[in-house]
Amino acid sequence: EQEKEQKQEQQDDKTAAHVIVPYSVLCKTFEACEATTKRLEITEYLVTLFVELCPDYEGLELGIGESLLMKAVAESTGRALKVIQKDYHKTGDLGTVAKNSKSSQSTLFKPKRLTVTYVFKTLKRIAEVKGNSAQANKIGLIKGLLVACEDNEAKYLIRQLEGKLRIGLAEQTVLSALAHSVVLSKPESAKMKTEQKEERLSYAVDLVKSVYNQLPSYNMLIPALLEHPLNELQERCQMRAGIPLKPMLAHPTKSLTEVLDRFEGHPFTCEFKYDGERAQIHKLPDGSIKIYSRNSEDMSVRYPDVVEKLKKWIKPTTSSFILDCEAVAWDCEKKCILPFQVLSTRKRKDVKEEDITVQVAIFAFDCLYFNGESLLQESLRSRREKLRNGFQETENEFFFARYMDTNNIEDIQTFLDVSIHSNCEGLMVKIYDGEEASYEPSKRSRNWLKVKKDYLGTGGVGDSMDLVVIAAFYGKGKRTNFYGSYLLACYDPDSGDYQTVCKLGTGFSEENLKDFYDQLNQHKLPMAPRYYQLGDNAETPDVWFEPKVVWEVKCADLSISPRYMAGVGLVDETRGISLRFPRFIRVRDDKEAEDGTTNEQVNFVCSF
Ligand code: ATP
């Protein structure tokens, strides 16, 4: 079967004028990237790979459970499941266990070598398997791949299946490498002088990154890069409804005077900062509606009621659009916003309209795309105008974000008080006119400032942090049956590592303790993985977890400590930042571990 499929693929590859790439080439690149932490070296490995090939890409939701993978490894290598489990507890990396299990296996027949296309297609099939015998079918497909693995292929295949390649490969590095490879693969690049080449490379990197920000789809970006000149890229890869953009983010500030100082001389506008969940709402030209989370996850099934009601807010002249909004819990009788905690009780998946108990209202604060045209480069003033012209408020359902344009500090203070009385979190203050008032996808911009009620005038730490739970300590006394405290970490996007930042044991309700115990036990690891940076002489936790769960945490102060590693290298060569008196605020299930507070942000708050 495999042979038949591979033949078909070779045919497909030929017709598509693609190169047939052995999977081993990709795994060797993974190995080289994993062996270094230097971004330049990683870029170089990727450039070499991309110059030679053109991998197709599509977002796959793999994340196959480890028990299923262990079963597949056992069955495909003829080793007992118990032995595999034991090895896994010793090494902590199922990929390495798979590789070692393979190398101790003698095979009679040599299966055909895997190609990247074949592995990719099979991974896709595995991700898509549904139905009664899904488990058995998945195991069957995985076994098929494992049997054909050689050298280090099993190691990376298993890691890809687990959904955690973790070789320190950040998205920005992939984009730079893509841009470099496009320039360097052109014959004329060999004749260029160093200076000219550098200029060309830097132009390509900026261009590829900015185009990807507007159209984050490798499926569209890569063919355009391969088939057309660079200077046509922007035009060929324009943003469109149906492809979610990474949202623009704001910088924290501590006081209104700080806002006025920062924006001196620039017209700005103040908006209510609604306390709910970010919702990017798309209407495609075919009339379909999609709602995406802060994370570009499709949330349309979470909000069937919003999708249904949406027709009423759209004026007849409006065809396609992308709106940036906040979805908040809403009391239809009292006509007021309900606190975030109410929204978090609404079901996340498989929501049926008749079962909905928590109503939501949408507050739109930006319009990024309208009737087939990108508005990203336009000023906020002009985007707001289009938003207000193209849509209409509907009772209990859809509103424009409340705003006030003034630079009088007393008026802003009053507006802030009103926002807080309306169950909002504070204000968002944004530059209104000129180039700086454009929409910057995926950027934490200084042109948007957030002023939260919680950190005004406290003299304490500026912003709450969204930290990843990486380990736990067993509880005592009342908490005997649960975890008593947790070890939290921030994310370093450069290395892909998690750096410890505090031990947390305060702010939990009894219900929280039980829920978190059950939830986190699903993510147990046999030991601390290599991508956790731990401080010296730090207390050793009882249980380690995969980086899956994100919690919002507040603290009274920060200190520098050798026992924690947050921001190490930024504040001090060997010591990191740690939170003093941290307190649990809420679960951030709209954030993945990689979207949590970064080491740089912790450092920023520290210097705040
Ligand atoms: P961040 O999004 O900055 O990483 P976060 O997710 O913890 O941090 P906040 O710090 O609370 O969120 O602030 C930003 C969020 O506020 C936005 O992502 C958006 O969901 C929400 N928001 C509410 N009202 C507005 C508004 N008027 N303009 C922009 N964002 C708003």
UniProtKB/TrEMBL annotation:
Lineage of the organism: Eukaryota, Fungi, Fungi incertae sedis, Mucoromycota, Mucoromycotina
For this protein, the record's Pfam families field holds: DNA_ligase_A_C, DNA_ligase_A_M, DNA_ligase_A_N
Reactions mediated catalytically:
ATP + (deoxyribonucleotide)n-3'-hydroxyl + 5'-phospho-(deoxyribonucleotide)m = (deoxyribonucleotide)n+m + AMP + diphosphate
Tell me which species this is from.
Phascolomyces articulosus
Lineage, top-rank taxon, reads Eukaryota
A GO term, aspect molecular function: DNA binding
Identification of the protein by name = DNA ligase
- The membrane-spanning stretches of this chain are none
* Entry keyword Transcription: no
Q: Give the GO cellular component terms, alphabetically.
A: mitochondrion; nucleus
Membership in a protein family: Belongs to the ATP-dependent DNA ligase family.
State its Enzyme Commission number(s).
6.5.1.1
Residue spans of biased composition, Basic and acidic residues class: 4-15
Which GO biological-process labels does this protein carry?
cell division; DNA biosynthetic process; DNA recombination; DNA repair; Okazaki fragment processing involved in mitotic DNA replication
Which CDD domains does the record associate with it? Adenylation_DNA_ligase_I_Euk, OBF_DNA_ligase_I
- Class in the EC hierarchy, top level: ligase
Ranges for domain ATP-dependent DNA ligase family profile come to 353-492
Record keyword Transferase present: no
Give the keywords, sorted: ATP-binding, Cell cycle, Cell division, DNA damage, DNA recombination, DNA repair, DNA replication, Ligase, Nucleotide-binding
